[in-house]
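ugh finaly. both done.
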Amino acid sequence: MTWFEERIAPGAFLKLQAERTLYSGQSDFQDLAVFETAAFGRVLALDGVVQTTERDEFIYHEMLTHLPLFAHGAARRVLIIGGGDGGMLEEALKHPVERVTLVELDPKVVEVSRQWLPSICGGAFDDPRTDLVIGDGAAFVAETDARYDLVIVDSPDPIGPATVLFSHPFYENCQRCLSPGGILVTQNGVPFLHEDEVTGTHRHLHRLFPQTGFYLAPVPTYTGGFMAFGWASERNLAEPPSDLEARIAAAGLPLAYYNPGIHRAAFALPEYVRKLLD
């Protein structure tokens, strides 16, 4: 057995005992590793940073898909930027959508996830409604003529090639890709440790959309407390639809975290997060 160690902040580390390494290799873009742990099951790490784990991926993926999809109520076309592990794709396909386009820069992430993380992606990549695009997400939203009811930015932290996915031009192009009444949601790290991810995204979205904000969920792997998700739209997501319970009940989805109470409570921000938005 070996130890995996990720630096999460100056002087702070996440340390996991890797009982067995299932895959370790280098793609054209990054180092990839999949290993087994007692606490979190199988873990996917990119360039030494944990991306997802079998044990708690459901929290992250459910909150970035089901919350905006139930808030919209009639989404038919979904765009996912990143998310090559397939977890977000699998959750989105649980809804009666017509098409889910997933744009992943690194094909090796998809290949490795399909082989070693089937509990996360399931058969999502084989679903006929899936449109897998291997390419740059920022270039895709800048160039596509398609329009989407929901755009999900499932990006790594703003390091290296992912930095562009937190830029004003990128968010501006995401706005351009939205259908009327469409919703944009983003992952913005753990604000207790990574304040800039929230403040930067808030600054950009506030300039582009009439309604913006953040909601939260605690994901155990992402050490430091609540994880923040940005949202932007013509509609106010912080005001759930009056028939939310009926929408969720009618869908009958097998959910492990998300429910009507969680939907409403996620928009209640602690003061240290609210102050980042001032």
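ok and the 2nd:
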Amino acid sequence: MKYDIIIIGSGPGGYVAAIRAAQLGRRVALVERAEAGGVCLNWGCIPTKALLRSAQVYETCRAAAQYGVEIAGDVRPDLEKIVARSRSVAETMSKGVQFLLRKNNIDLIHGFGRLKGPGRVEVDGAEYEADHIILATGARPREMPFMPVDGERVITSKQALALTRLPASITVVGSGAIGSELAWFYAALGAKVTVVEYMPRMMPLEDEEVSKAMERAFRKLRATVLTSTTVKSVRVDAEGMCEIDIEGKKGAETLRSEVVLSAVGIQANIEGIGLEEAGVAVEHGKIAVDAFYRTNVAGIYAIGDIVPGPALAHVASAEGICCVEAICGLDPEPVDYTTIPSCVFTSPEVASVGFTEQRLQERGVAYKAGRFPFTASGKATAAGERDGFVKLLFAEEDGRLLGAHLVGAHVTEMLAEPTLARALGATAHRIARTIHAHPTMHEGVMEAAEAAMGQAIHL
């Protein structure tokens, strides 16, 4: 069968690209070997947020007395029911993607897709043709030889989303978004959590001030955070406990916990999809592409976690739209990788876009920083959620927003404003003079801009 465009992989890059192509009048097929929606909808972003919401509800119930609410009896988390709800949410979203595909007359082909050469795709023995083929095969948890995953005691994020019994103790190796979110979830439910991070600070890609704030938040939750620490080996002893040999600030130690969660990053799914046979170039474990996601082979494209750039669902979606619009001759703007929003759904949440202070200092860029702590926010105080701050970084030269870094309740929902402001080149003056509704957490963005101008009113 002949299509205009075949896309391999139905994650946030693949299915969004498919729908945009269909909107532009192309005949489209989408190949998927597992559930529609890819890892994000089924084993990543969405089910994780469902778990975290359950933990937040549990925390709110435990703190009910602080709000003048009495709860009779014990409040206990039921991990089996929490996981069941999470899986139900994921299933609902996957069905939603399938509905969108049908609505847009996109053929969903189930099976493992691989290139058979330019214009040809094989799916479990059947062959299809297309003028254009987009690879969107995503990524999987990276496995390390010193930390062999068995799926029971040493697990990845996928198994961590489906545990039916709360472990008494869990060691999380890696403190990026995945590791931090799952560490917070299990700590909030009452497990003894230890976070081991190789870099000098937790959440090492975030602004240093954010990292320090989150280390304090985790310690407040009674989680142990070990930074500048290397995991040497992980093994399971005769009692079924994990022994983790580490070397850190105190020298060599051995930790023990029921479960070890490996959250040391991801690995692109590029094996076995026919890259070598088709002659598609790979560099440093990722498929090499240009600004419109064309590979070195005419008619073959790649987007998402398998190409250089941040491995984020919303980035894959943006790349998919850009790629398809270029194929269809719409002359789209290339994706701006300096304006990619990033969120971590711990409690407090973390949200950021643009440059960190450390990056600006490394580049020698003169800037002004404006800060607003949520302790000064009426809405945050009324809600009992005063932890965190808003920090905005503006260019000294012309006042344009260079970066935004937020810690606090619901800050992931607040991030759209600074992201749009950065994309449009908004200045501190423009943000400060934009009237923000009162009382809201969003006022913190305005207040931080005022602080950068030396006009702070509420500090």
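summary for the 2nd one i guess: The two ends are 66 Å apart (CA to CA).
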